[in-house]
Design a protein that fits this description.
By secondary structure, this protein is an alpha/beta fold. Helices cover 40% and strands 20% of the residues. The chain folds into 2 domains: 164 residues, Periplasmic binding protein-like II (D-Maltodextrin-Binding Protein, domain 2, 3-Layer(aba) Sandwich), CATH 3.40.190.10; 90 residues, 3-Layer(aba) Sandwich (D-Maltodextrin-Binding Protein, domain 2), CATH 3.40.190.10.
Amino acid sequence: MTINIRLGISTCPNDTFTFHGLINRLVDWRSLNFEVELLDIQELNDRLFAGRFDVAKTSFHAALLLSENWTVLPSGSALGFGVGPLLLSSGENMTPSDANQVTLCPGRHTTATLLFKLFYPNTTTIQHVVFSDIMPQLQQGLADFGVCIHEGRFTWQDQHLGLVEDLGTRWETETHSPLPLGGIVAGRHLTDDVTAAVQAVIFDSLQYAMADRDSALPTMRRFAQEFSDEVLMQHVDLYVNNWTVDLGEVGRLALQQLSRRAAEIGLLSEDARPLEIFTIYGSSS
């Protein structure tokens, strides 16, 4: 019997790279039928809260809030060193310090927004916009600061914007842990066998792309905000790593750090269910 899986992933290059084999059915779907939607990360978060997916890419900020009904798959995550969002300014030598200042964030449940709240609590007025609008609005002087994610990490200097801080570097300095940005979650309504099959397909899809990186470029180009192949592969080099293959123990500890810090600023209750990585036969992959 074929089981339908409503799958949501983001349009960013690390996801389209990882899921190239799955999207184009270049790997065995293992008696599953994937109905795939590609969306902006905050759209994914919103639809996940609405129960629109069986499996989806989501910000780990959102995953923490949804841990009662969702579990993290070992493969497909964005976690690492040097991968964090950048806090940019519309001019030089600016610091968030005034409620009259405006900071643009890429969605209220994104990990980027959580980091800004952790490191700059109660400093400015936060407005949420689609991530691709943040740098253009800063250039136009429509906001003072913006939390920049995805390809903008590689192109912000061309836009003549100021760098306030690399929020990922600050996370690493304070926690001595890689930054968990986002991952693939599966609904607890799925049976363990179905979840294991989904995990296996994602793992196979990632291995397919890693074995022939250039083969994924057409899929990546179709959805990317930036069309330079060099920028696309920079993105893959930064966000696709050993923890994308398997979060493992380091990933588990990083998620614990994120959960603890979110609880410290009141975003999680003390009795919230811990975020769990799905385990197959006593292993995390």
